[in-house]
Design a protein that fits this description.
This protein is 51% helix and 9% strand. It is of the alpha/beta class. The protein folds into 3 domains: 217 residues, Nucleotidyltransferase, domain 5, CATH 3.30.420.10; 93 residues, HRDC domain (DNA polymerase, domain 1); 85 residues, HRDC domain (DNA polymerase, domain 1, Orthogonal Bundle), CATH 1.10.150.80. The strands form 2 sheets. The protein has a 6-stranded mixed β-sheet, with helices on both faces. β4 and β5 form a beta hairpin.
């Protein structure tokens, strides 16, 4: 791409309503300066740090993980691009501590696409932005229906990215050249996309909203570990008895321990469907275990033995140690139960949902970005005694709503709460 073409992409602006029309996108097949070499030594990393510290403007950042192949969500490749610095590909396996790179860019705005997906793995290697611009979230706020990086690049900038390697095993070493080309192209136009979306948001009067959202993402602490993650086993809804739930827990925990030790995705060790089948069947011996779907393939007697031992541990548990039928959940019950448990609250929720949906449509943005459904449920289930706009605003603020969200939704929620007052 020439300098003139780069300038053109930075100033291009497409209205969300016109994103399905216009000329066909131009395929982007090669990075502007070619595929950068993979940075894999301390000396090479020092040169990258110096180069990017001397660049100008925002820095595009992306990370590739090996989801479905390796345990956890660690990064296996980091891509960066900045004006005056070009592009870089950094191997976080060979260079596991990138704090020096993160520190060099600390005062710089980071441009990411779907930032919340990459921030955890970036944080693990010492890369923590203080300011960011999320192009996916910006696209949502601007009213684009398709906000993946490929569709956004096509609709806003007119270039088509090749997306054929998004689900490959990025833990592979050495990384094939086509994969590296794909990775470099992922950040090639990210700053250009950011600039075009900033212009679009400014024109719609939504830039301040976006900046508030970005600041909230950057300031958010790491999420706490999920409680009882085994309950998220696919097909868990079929498991009704507490003893069977204990089998799921034991098998899930055994699988997780093996997967972590072998650095493999848990699904490659044992599928969720097999765990649920074993819980429902409660096999009486090893041959019965081996006959279940998912256990006979790719594992010998030793493998079957360890899974059967997990079933036996669950079978031997005293009743008091069996998991409870449901998790202890804070907050309101599922909305489907409101009509029976509290009809007045159900009416409040219906009114609030209708008003929020209508306002989101007026603003051309997803309802969940205007205000989270969970926040609406909590306010409607336990409304404040004082339903003035100031009091409702404080409740929303306590639930993490940003100021622009409060400004847009407080009048709607106040009317919904006042129209259907809580029962004495």
């Amino acid at each position: 791409m020439t300098d003139a073409q780069e300038t053109e992409t930075r100033t291009a602006r497409v209205q969300p309503s016109s994103q399905d029309s216009g000329p066909a996108p131009v395929p982007l097949l090669e990075p502007r300066e070619g595929i950068p070499p993979v940075t894999a030594t301390a000396q090479e990393l020092a040169r990258v740090v110096e180069r990017f510290a001397g660049g100008s403007g925002p820095v595009a950042v992306d990370a590739e993980r090996a989801s479905g192949y390796r345990y956890g969500q660690r990064a296996y490749l980091i891509q960066l691009r900045r004006r005056g610095a070009g592009s870089a590909l950094v191997d976080p396996v060979a260079c596991p501590d990138l704090t020096v790179l993160g520190d060099a860019l600390r005062d710089t705005e980071w441009v990411l696409h779907a930032a919340t997906q990459d921030l955890p793995c970036l944080r693990e290697i010492g890369m923590i932005p203080e300011r960011l611009f999320d192009t996916e979230l910006a696209g949502r706020l601007a009213g684009f229906a398709r906000v993946g990086l490929g569709p956004m690049t096509e609709n806003v900038l007119g270039y088509a990215l090749e997306k054929g390697h998004s689900a490959v095993d990025w833990s592979t070493r050495p990384l094939p050249e086509p994969w590296l080309r794909y990775a470099a192209l992922d950040v090639e136009l990210l700053v250009d996309l950011r600039d075009a979306l900033e212009e679009e948001l400014t024109a719609q009067g939504k830039l301040d909203w976006a900046l508030q959202e970005f600041a909230a993402i950057a300031a958010a602490p790491p999420p706490p570990p999920r409680k009882d993650p085994w309950r998220r086993t696919s097909g868990m809804h079929k498991v009704r008895r507490r003893r069977q739930m204990a089998v799921v827990r034991e098998l899930w925990t055994t699988r997780d321990r093996i997967a972590q030790r072998r650095d493999l995705s848990p699904g490659k060790i044992l599928g969720d469907a097999a765990i649920v089948e074993a819980a429902l069947a409660m096999p009486a011996d090893v041959p019965a275990m081996a006959a279940l779907p998912g256990f006979a393939q790719r594992m010998g007697k030793r493998g079957i033995d360890q899974w059967f031992a997990a079933v036996e541990r669950a079978r031997a548990l005293p009743d008091r140690e069996l998991p409870q039928q449901g998790q202890h959940v804070t907050g309101p019950p599922p909305p489907r139960a409101w009509a029976d448990r509290d009809p007045v609250a159900a009416a409040r929720l219906a009114a609030a949902r209708a008003a929020v949906t209508a306002r989101a449509e007026e603003l051309s943005l997803p309802q969940e970005n205007l205000i989270t459904p969970d926040t609406v449920r909590r306010v409607c289930w336990e409304p404040p005694a004082d339903t003035s706009e100031a009091a409702v605003g404080e409740v929303l603020r306590a639930h993490g709503a940003r100021e622009w969200q409060i400004e847009q939704t407080v009048p709607l929620l106040t009317v919904a709460l006042a129209a259907t007052p809580a029962e004495e």
